[in-house]
Amino acid sequence: MFGRVKPLDAILATAEKKSLHRSLGAFQLTMLGVGAVIGTGIFVLTAEAAQKAGPGMMLSFIIAGFVCAVAALCYAEMSSMVPVSGSAYTYSYAVMGELVAWMVGWALILEYAIAAGAVSVGWSGYMIGFVQNTFHITVPLELVRGPFDGGVINLPAMLIAAIITGLLVLGTKESATVNAVLVAIKIVALSMFIALTLPVIKSGNFTPFAPLGFTGISGAAASIFFAYVGFDAVSTAAEETKDPQRNMPIGLIGSLAICTIFYMLVAGGVIGTVGAQPVYGAHGEVLSPGTSALSDACKAVNENAVVCSKEALAWTLRQVGHPFVGWLVGAAAILALPSVILMMMFGQTRVFFVMSRDGLLPEFFSKVHPKFHTPHVITIMTGVFVALFAAFFPVGLLADVSNSGTLFAFGAVSVAVMVLRRTDPNRHRPFRTPGVNIVAPISIAGCIYLFISLSKATISLFLGWGLVGLFVYYFYSRSRSHVGRGLVEVHEDDDDTPDLPVPPLPGV
Q1: How far is CA 156 from CA 308, 312, 343, 476, in A?
Q2: TM segments (predicted)?
Q3: What is the number of helices (H) and of strands (E) in the chain?
């Protein structure tokens, strides 16, 4: 299981051969992290969290943020010590061997592809709300929601996924200026929301604080975790970072701290102004987000609850007498979220490409387009699946499934830090995780806690996905692995790396 380890020195040699231009400093990395984290999670999942935990979602944000913080400290040590692309997959290959690396890469498919579908659905909600409130057009629910959510198909979500796939195949490169503008739009939108809602908060809206008990808070934390995912995107920029040993930890932890403050203030604004109590069924039963039952219950109350909204922040502002600012927040989400989908799909194609180059997936997957110099085959395949996910599944379900893969990857990195401390104690560590024997186990325990707080259906799906991954590994990948065949030296020459598009600042 742990026999096929890709030597750290070989991985570092790859970075030297690539010689990517190192131009990112601590500030740029922090902004990259802020752009990566702020997005669909806070714009959309606030309603999902309210249905699961009520005002207790404030505590859910703290729990999810804490787990991310200890995981970030582990990421910081690995990314500063091994400043190469590949993130959790690369770290696992170097420390715990090929099988674990394969399972992490397999789990990252859930993180990236499913997350892209979730963001597409989130974008659809804001786009439809924007169209209906701007042009006073009523769009049939059957065409903008999947079958689990009281509709038939989500056409806008499917369309945006298809457009982004086309852009990735063409290799469109977004400039740093455009990326910075998108981050600024999101931050300005959330700042306006906070400034207009906090002064009119009513303390009575915070009671009962935990209508569904701590179980509801835990379930909301497991979903809200999606709102923090993205900070690990900072570690994928390690090869292009000036003084990564110093700047990577600053970028990781700094961006997480900024986003946590934003989230707490936004959640407080929603709860304090319009309330965030769950909507119950006709007989007082608890209803799950993203279900037909909840959709029917929302119709019964004329959609007059934040948990019913597909554009929670814009809806809240309209309710408290700021329709124009609500319109602006909706516009900000519509403008900024497509870059998130692009980054998630970019990350997916990069993971597939690297695994294919390692021999773990067919070489056909890493086929590069002769004109556009992009891995068009796997990009189109990924785009088709993302579009189907977005068309038929609700955002909450997609976010939870994505979280299951992400939590597995984060846990693996936390294990890798401890293992490497024992197997290679003398290696230079520019950043050392403080109290690693305490922080890393807390990170692992936190990931397990959030994982088991997910729905039974999500956990079952993840375990089923893992079994499929093991089958593929033992019946295909193991016998074709470059490391297993002793081809590491040949593989380390990365001259054939395709001209992939420069990833924009994402934001989950």
Answers
A1: 19, 18, 19, 37
A2: 26-45, 57-78, 151-170, 177-197, 209-229, 250-271, 324-347, 377-399, 405-423, 435-452, 458-476
A3: 20, 0
Q: Which helix (H) or strand (E) holds 379?
A: helix 376-392
Tell me the torsion sign for CA atoms 117, 119, 124, 125.
positive
Average pLDDT, the chain: 83
Q: How far is CA 406 from CA 110, 181, 236, 335, 450, in A?
A: 8, 28, 15, 26, 11
Q: What CA–CA distance (Å, rounded) separates 193 from 318?
A: 11
CATH code given to domain 8-491:
1.20.1740.10
Q: At what angle do helices 395-423 and 98-109 cross, to 10 degrees?
A: 160
- How far is the C-alpha of 46 from the C-alpha of 218, rounded, in Å? 14
pLDDT at position 254: 85
> Domain coordinates of the chain in residue numbers?
8-491
Region of 391 on the Ramachandran plot (φ > 0 left; ψ -120 to 50 alpha; else beta): alpha
More confident residue, 392 or 245: 392
Say what the pLDDT of residue 291 is. Answer: 81
Nearest to 462 by CA among 376, 400, 374: 400
Whether the CB-CB separation of 79 and 238 falls below 8 Å is answered with: yes
- Tokens 């299981």 found at: 1
Model's pTM, two decimal places?
A: 0.84
Whose CA is closest to 495, among 352, 350, 357, 371? Answer: 357
By C-alpha distance, which of 425, 427, 448, 449 is closest to 437?
A: 425
Could you give the angle at the alpha carbon of 23 between the alpha carbons of 20 and 29, nearest 5°?
Answer: 110
Measured distance CA(226)–CA(115) in Å, rounded: 8
Name the token pair of 128.
């439809």
Stretch 477-499: mean pLDDT: 62
Q: Which residue matches tokens 């203030």?
A: 265
Judged by average pLDDT, the poorest of 81-85, 141-145, 438-442 is 81-85
